[in-house]
Write a sequence for this structure.
């Protein structure tokens, strides 16, 4: 059996490794248009490779029930066991569910996987762009370096986020030509541009409860650190919000409300502010916020330090601190997104992730219409889908 895995990053590396490990008699070939393998993997987890999440479950994905089917066979313990069978040791970040290779280094992890490929005898074809293919017996892979014959093709070509790292979405029109339904591609896990001007607080960070609202209806709530940018909001919690927003049909009228002090009620915050103000009327707010955020909050509360004199003024300030509202203008685009929403529709594959249209074609990873939240969920899907295909 001669198999081509197309895409040598997150899911592709795992697929090639487990295919060859499970079936040493197979000839496994790994293609990528990049010169070096694992380009995107190198960028993950801020260079640390957040490869798994202990609590990955369906709710972290756009298609919870689809993911849940696979999670039953591949709970965290099984994924850890599968990686351990390759010699990969993991470590969990303190107080978090995020899991990393013990080296805490994406370059070390990619280097280790590259050595495994070599050790197992996977044949690499780097700097080769796949242009099209023919399903058949054999299948033909058409590339910019000529045509190759294989018994099976596994496409692991990703979405179109951060095309500089490799996956540029160029094969989706090809899949469409082959009859596959493609769910429209949108950027996920990215910063959000707001209608309100945020330049004066650009670079500031604050923990917040982030609520996505349409009128009075709450769509989503999550706590985390928000980073203010020149033109909007960023940070993991905002990336997750952006994915949520871009999954909606009409996100135009949504607003994002930041509660900068979620651990304290409005009434208690008013009382605290009033108490602080009574002690140091000219600088009491400096105890709560750095100067740029302080000035921003005073502006939206409609008060200046010099005229904060009453409980009513403290109430206005507390309301601004617990209800900083931003109207969504748009999200950042693919160049700044960590995952692509959309892709090959899930009804195009069977339970083994084999195409229902083309007998010798399978898909894994992000090229399928499945995307997860930040925190190792997307690489978890890469590993699970690669294991399914390799099995
Ligand atoms: C900055 C950043 C940080 C991230 N951090 C995390 C994290 O910490 N944890 C997490 O779980 N997820 C993270 N992600 C998301 C995660 O990296 C992706 O979901 C994952 O890499 C998808 O794997 P994949 O193999 O499906 O696609 P990709 O990793 O995109 O790989 C696809 C490969 O296919 C190749 N290819 C595409 N088209 C062709 C073609 N026509 N011919 C030949 N080769 C082709 C590409 O060059 C590429 O190497 C991050 C993403 C980014 C951008």
């Amino acid at each position: 059996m001669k198999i081509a895995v197309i895409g040598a990053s997150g899911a592709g590396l795992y697929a090639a490794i487990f295919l060859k490990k499970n079936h040493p008699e197979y000839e496994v070939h790994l293609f990528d248009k990049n010169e070096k393998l694992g380009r995107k993997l190198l960028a993950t987890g801020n260079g640390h490779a957040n490869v798994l999440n202990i609590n990955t479950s369906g709710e972290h994905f756009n298609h919870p029930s689809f993911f849940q089917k696979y999670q039953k066979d591949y709970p965290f313990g099984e994924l850890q066991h599968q990686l351990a069978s390759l010699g990969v040791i993991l470590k969990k970040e303190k107080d978090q569910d995020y899991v990393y290779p013990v080296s805490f280094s994406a370059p070390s992890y990619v280097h280790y996987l590259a050595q495994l490929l070599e050790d197992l005898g996977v044949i690499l074809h780097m700097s080769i762009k796949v242009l099209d293919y023919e399903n058949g017996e054999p299948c033909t892979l058409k590339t910019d370096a000529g045509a190759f014959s294989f018994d099976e093709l596994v496409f692991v070509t990703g979405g179109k986020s951060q095309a500089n790292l490799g996956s540029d979405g160029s094969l989706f029109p090809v899949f469409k030509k082959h009859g596959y339904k493609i769910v429209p591609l949108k950027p996920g896990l990215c910063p959000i541009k707001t209608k309100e001007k945020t330049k004066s607080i650009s670079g500031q960070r604050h923990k917040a409860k982030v609520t996505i609202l349409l009128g009075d209806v709450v769509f989503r709530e999550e706590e985390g650190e928000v980073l203010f940018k020149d033109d909007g909001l960023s940070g993991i919690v905002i990336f997750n919000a952006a994915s949520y927003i871009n999954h909606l049909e009409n996100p135009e009228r949504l607003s994002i409300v930041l509660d900068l002090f979620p651990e304290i009620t409005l009434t208690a915050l008013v009382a605290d502010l009033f108490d602080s103000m009574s002690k140091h009327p000219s600088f009491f707010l400096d105890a709560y916020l750095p100067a740029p955020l302080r000035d921003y909050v005073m502006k939206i509360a409609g008060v200046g330090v010099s005229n904060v004199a009453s409980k009513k003024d403290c109430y206005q300030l507390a309301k601004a601190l617990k209800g900083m509202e931003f109207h969504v203008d748009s999200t950042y685009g693919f160049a700044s997104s960590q995952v692509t929403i959309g892709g090959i529709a899930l009804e195009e594959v069977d339970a083994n992730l084999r195409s229902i249209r083309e007998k010798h074609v399978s898909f894994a990873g992000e090229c399928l219409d499945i995307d997860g939240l930040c925190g190792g969920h997307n690489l978890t899907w890469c590993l699970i889908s690669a294991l399914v295909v390799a099995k």
Remarks:
- Residues 35 and 96 are 35 Å apart (CA to CA).
- Residues 266-324 form one domain.
- The chain has three domains: 2-187+340-390, 192-261+326-331, 266-324.
